[in-house]
């Protein structure tokens, strides 16, 4: 999601890594081996690191943020205060100088996201910057060799975890089963989506999502729709 009065973080001149494995929706991977979302890889619950405030603990399970431009890596994490699972998102910036020149703008965008509160929006909890050069964040599945790691900066942000999956995946399953959705269900969904968009557009300044698709909208078992991240 982006402020309407500012340039998208994802389209600035800041250079950040791209996750070449990203597809569509939430998909959990455990450890070094790819697993189905309902399976646990060996050591999948291992704690890799903690947030500076110690509230969030990053686990080994990877969450593929499909169709969310700008997110390089995402992992399941635990909120140690509430006991809820959350998503630990990472955005890598490969040029420290360019990042520093736009740091104020980037912080303003993330600050805005943390203040958005609506029933039909995926909650954006907190963010922070990590510039530690002794802890390179490399996807074990890709085996990437990164040069000049000391020049990289990583933005980490915590979001609500939508375990039920995207609206796109729900519609795919519905089509395969041959079930028909009635008009009442469609009206319920569109009302929720429009409510969230009205909230975003009523902010001062207005917030533009910039990537609203069925892959960035999520549905819970009770029919609650939540809009996830736009471009980062």
TrEMBL record:
Residues 1-20 have a biased composition (Polar residues). Residues 39-49 have a biased composition (Acidic residues). GO terms for molecular function: ATP binding; protein kinase activity. Residues 60-232 form the Protein kinase domain. This is Protein kinase domain-containing protein. PANTHER family: SERINE/THREONINE-PROTEIN KINASE WNK WITH NO LYSINE -RELATED. InterPro entries: Kinase-like_dom_sf, Prot_kinase_dom, WNK_Ser-Thr_kinase. It comes from Brugia timori. It holds the Pfam family Pkinase. Residues 1-61 are annotated as: Disordered.
